[in-house]
Amino acid sequence: MGFGTGFFSYPINVSAQSCVSHEHMAVISSALYTTYRIGYAVGSSVAGAIWSQMLYSRLVKYLGDSTLATSVYTDPYTFIAQYVWGTPEREAAVKAYGEVQRVLMSVCIAFVAPMIVSALFMRDHKLTNEQSLEDVEKQEEKDSLANFFGNFKKKRVAV
């Protein structure tokens, strides 16, 4: 998640914001954030479904014992404490986890492929120092919160 957020989410946000005017900035930001969260929910659901539907059956297949497979599935930390690297049981569990992980990565690549292809067709907007609102610094000086309270205090003293 850290890599994806840092290298994809923020640049996409900047790219989308560079395409809209100042008055539409909040709309595009909220649309992107909503899409990001929906995608996160769908991805988490699909990953959870793959793990829960495939892992136990693969553990039974490679371990050959449903009781041991249940132990690995429900309490993996106790299992790895009992069965160290090199034991047949541990190797079978690792093989089951690896197989499920391979399926999970294949599904992830299938989901990401359209995004990568669509990124190749994005426009290259130049980010300059130009602001979308004219005289924004002057406007900020007039509308700043400190000036508001300063003027409020002056009016109160005068009364």
TrEMBL record:
The keyword Cell division does not apply. The keyword Phosphoprotein does not apply. It is found in: Endomembrane system. GO terms for cellular component: endosome; plasma membrane; vacuolar membrane. Keywords: Ion transport, Membrane, Transmembrane, Transmembrane helix, Transport. It is a multi-pass membrane protein. It comes from the Eukaryota. SUPFAM superfamilies: MFS general substrate transporter. GO terms for molecular function: siderophore-iron transmembrane transporter activity. The chain crosses the membrane at residues 103-122. Belongs to the major facilitator superfamily. This is Siderophore iron transporter. It comes from Candida albicans.
